[in-house]
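Translate structure to sequence.
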């Protein structure tokens, strides 16, 4: 008789020990980082994101954008090979901020508004840093120049739409069906549900921000400048502040396009609830990061912006010369190859 012993997965134990050792080694930094996370949630995240999340849920449940989606159904079908009711998801993903698009995708697939294949493709590009973060927080707040924030936002939007067009080649035969969106409906219960649902989502998001605030503070305390760069990849809100001091604008755009692993953790529940794959979501973030950096590089190369910098230089010319465009392009095509290798069994549109 052959007895097969189950393999012991030590990854959770190792991860817990490492994080625990980090937090207990730098308790003061962890405390200050958690406080900073709470402050970000109360002063920035909740005021800017909660109304948008409530609005997006309300739009999805009542189909408030029925007329615009109906008018642009041919554009949605031609560019993305998606039904007309996916148009409102794409629109809200562009302007709503990081988790809004993925939440709408999750809600739509669970309600049967879109197929699982369409949801998987939408999850690869329907997450974008909205103008509230790019223009207001990055452009005005960090760089002191609204134009820079606009350039970052335009770069991210173009990148998102290009990836969406690319994913049409990953669709299956079901995406060809002409499924029309339902006419708009309205009731007081929809408002109540939208507000409460947005509140629950904000609790989950805020918890991740506070946790990553403590972890990134400890990493920065331990590794110094290297820790600052690593923290930029882990948590995008505070990371972009650090990166903007030592990196050119296209690099900050790339970090914003990637979103940071804190944002990735925020959307894990949406992916899990709707049976979506994180590897496809991650592939989309990597491609978006590289592509948005290239687009930002090109915009700033042909239309450089004069800017006064308050950090370490009296004046500076915001440009993309310090970014290696060939390297970023090569990374972009590597990510494209990775996407094609994810699921070769899906039929072409």
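Result:
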């Amino acid at each position: 008789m052959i007895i097969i012993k189950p393999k012991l997965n030590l990854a959770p134990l190792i991860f817990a020990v490492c994080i625990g050792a980090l937090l207990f080694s730098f308790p003061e930094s962890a405390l200050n980082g958690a406080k900073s996370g709470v402050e970000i949630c109360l002063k920035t995240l909740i005021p800017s994101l909660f109304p948008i999340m409530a609005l997006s849920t309300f739009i999805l449940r009542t189909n408030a954008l029925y007329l615009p989606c109906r008018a642009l159904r041919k554009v949605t079908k031609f560019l993305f090979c998606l039904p007309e009711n996916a148009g409102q998801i794409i629109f809200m993903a562009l302007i709503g901020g990081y988790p809004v698009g993925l939440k709408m995708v999750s809600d739509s697939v669970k309600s049967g508004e879109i197929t699982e294949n369409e949801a998987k493709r939408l999850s690869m590009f329907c997450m974008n840093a909205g103008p509230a973060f790019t223009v207001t927080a990055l452009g005005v707040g960090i760089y002191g120049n609204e134009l820079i924030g606009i350039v970052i936002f335009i770069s991210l939007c173009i990148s998102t739409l290009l990836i969406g067009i690319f994913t049409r080649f990953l669709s299956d035969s079901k995406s060809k069906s002409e499924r029309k969106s339902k006419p708009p409906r309205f009731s007081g219960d929809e408002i109540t549900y939208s507000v409460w649902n947005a509140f629950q989502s904000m609790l989950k998001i805020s918890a991740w921000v506070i946790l990553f605030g403590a972890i990134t503070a400890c990493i920065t305390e331990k590794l110094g400048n290297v820790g600052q760069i690593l923290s930029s990849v882990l948590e995008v809100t505070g990371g972009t502040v650090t990166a903007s001091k030592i990196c050119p604008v296209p690099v900050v755009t790339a970090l914003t396009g990637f979103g940071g692993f804190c944002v990735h953790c925020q959307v894990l529940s949406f992916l899990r609830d709707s049976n979506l794959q994180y590897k496809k979501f991650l592939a989309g973030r990597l491609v978006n990061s590289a592509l948005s950096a290239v687009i930002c590089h090109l915009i700033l190369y042909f239309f450089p912006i004069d800017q006064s910098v308050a950090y370490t230089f009296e004046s500076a010319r915001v440009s993309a010369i310090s970014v290696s465009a060939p390297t970023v392009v090569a990374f972009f095509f590597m990510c494209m190859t990775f996407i094609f290798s994810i699921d070769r069994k899906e039929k072409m549109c």
